[in-house]
Design brief:
This protein has 156 residues and is mainly α. The protein has a single domain, classed as Tetraspanin (Cd81 Antigen, Extracellular Domain, Chain: A). Helices cover 69% and strands 3% of the residues. The chain has five helices and two strands, in the order ααααββα. A two-stranded antiparallel ribbon has the order 1-2. Helix 1 runs antiparallel to helix 5 and helix 2 (30-43) packs across helix 5. It is rod-shaped. The protein starts with a helix and ends with a helix. The mean pLDDT is 86.
Length: 156
């Protein structure tokens, strides 16, 4: 039973290592993946209520506007700039003027967030993997000790 526990821990450990290697190899694609995902969500702003709420939340929380700035809304969607782009919440209505809008795009702010949190995430994952490795060693030591004790009792 304890050996089986060690095997499960080993499987999770190997899975974490595989994911870590995959993320390390593909770390250069963060910007292109983020751009594609963000553009898809922003393009669906008028069509899906989930996208609408998500985009408004991103723009408000990150103090940004559009994928690359307020021009995104006028160039790509032929729609007015949403109110969530406004610098102050004191405005009325559902739109915002270009002068009142945040000038920074949400893409760069999202990439900066991913890059700033990836180091901490890596450390957390490595800490968990290290704990699993220690658990594997202790479980195998305990299983060996139990087997040795059973053998010793056979000679008594």
């Amino acid at each position: 039973m304890i050996t089986m526990y060690a095997m499960f821990l080993l499987a999770f450990f190997l899975l974490e290592v595989a994911v870590g290697v995959f993320l390390y190899v593909n770390r250069g694609q963060v910007e292109s993946i983020t751009r594609k995902s963000l553009t898809t969500v922003f393009d669906d702003y008028s069509n899906k209520s989930e996208s609408h709420a998500f985009v408004d939340e991103i723009q408000h929380d990150f103090s940004c506007c559009g994928v690359d700035g307020p021009n995104y809304w006028t160039e790509n969607n032929a729609a007015a700039i949403p109110h969530s782009c406004c610098r102050d919440d004191g405005g009325q209505g559902t739109t915002c003027s270009k002068a009142q809008a945040w000038q920074d795009g949400c893409l760069q702010k999202s990439i900066d967030l991913v890059k700033s949190t990836s180091g901490m995430l890596f450390k957390i994952i490595m800490g968990i993997a290290g704990g699993e490795l220690v658990g594997i060693v202790f479980a195998l030591c305990l299983a060996s000790s139990i087997r040795n004790e059973e053998r010793r009792q056979g000679y008594a």
